[in-house]
Amino acid sequence: MVPTAKETGRNLTAISEFILLGFGDLPKLQIFLFLLFLVIYSLTMAGNLLIVMLVVSDRHLHTPMYFFLGNLSFLESCYSTTILPKMLSSFLTGEKRIYIRACFTQFFIFSCLGGTECYLLAVMSYDRYLAICKPLHYAALMSGRLSFQLAAVSWFSGVLVGTIVTLAVSWLSFCGPNEIDDYFCDFGPNIRYISCSDTHLFELSAFISTSLFTLPPFVFTVASYVFIIHTVLKIPSTTGRQKAFSTCSSHLIVVSLFYGSLMLVYMLPCSKKLRNMKKVFSLVYTVLTPLVNPLIYSLRNKEVKGAMKKGFRSLFMFITL
Asked: Please, which contacts does 279-285 make with residues 24 or more away whose CB atoms are closer than 8 Å?
């Protein structure tokens, strides 16, 4: 059982701010880290917003698959904007304090986006399942109306998850220490170190909400790919198998990166020895995944590459006029 503040002799005065330690143990690398993450943030925003604009403007991309991709790219832009600007400010100014309300807001938005991404990835896997396993019925089954409804349910479910988890955190008392050994306000792996309340209720509610709202889309995603792989392997020709698998390989890479790093962060034991390792793994789903998503989907997708070439050609013609 985790001892309470009274049992450990900690100060019971309520705190008004947290200190995000981040990568403060690397003082000589702060400028380098600032420049590195500034480039990452710029490329992430440019790549994801470019995909959103292409999906909106190019009529050839007005299909359910690209509609979901546009939602995912918009979500990744929000993900990066929720976390990286504060991190960049900390690298540049050395200011690591964040007011408790701002910390709760960041945690709420992060939780909403994380929950939404779980459902969006599940919806995208279902879309690929229909396209590969039921190609003759795909147009009838995955209509524009259904794709909009699935995207709306994904966003609603993510907001619901974020609300439940944030409310559970808000019931706790924070009276010191006020240091969060992370680069953003992620209470999950750090709650027992910063709260002076008994955190068992929070951990139980977080486990239940995670099990109810994020485990089903994960299982659904895995099941969809089991059926997809089974169908692809039954295709007699090698060319046919390669063509079928190429339509979902990009999504499979993203799913593996996202869920793999997420599990390592939240399923590893909460110990001081593993904190730095978990901090590095969390960079995968908060920083690396939003960065590589546009590259994965554009480099491995003829339609997106064609839309990009057309867009750049139109922009060049507009500039030279």
From this structure: 279/181, 279/182, 279/183, 282/182, 282/186, 284/257, 284/260, 285/114, 285/257, 285/258, 285/261
C-alpha 37/C-alpha 312 separation (Å) is 26
Tell me the pLDDT of the chain (321 aa) as tens digits: 444 444 444 445 567 788 888 887 777 888 999 999 999 999 999 999 988 988 888 888 888 988 999 999 999 999 899 999 999 999 988 888 889 899 999 999 999 999 999 999 999 999 989 988 888 889 889 988 999 999 999 999 999 988 988 888 888 888 767 888 888 888 776 676 677 777 777 777 777 777 777 788 888 998 998 898 888 888 887 777 777 777 777 778 888 888 888 877 777 666 666 677 778 888 888 888 899 888 887 766 777 767 666 766 665 665 666
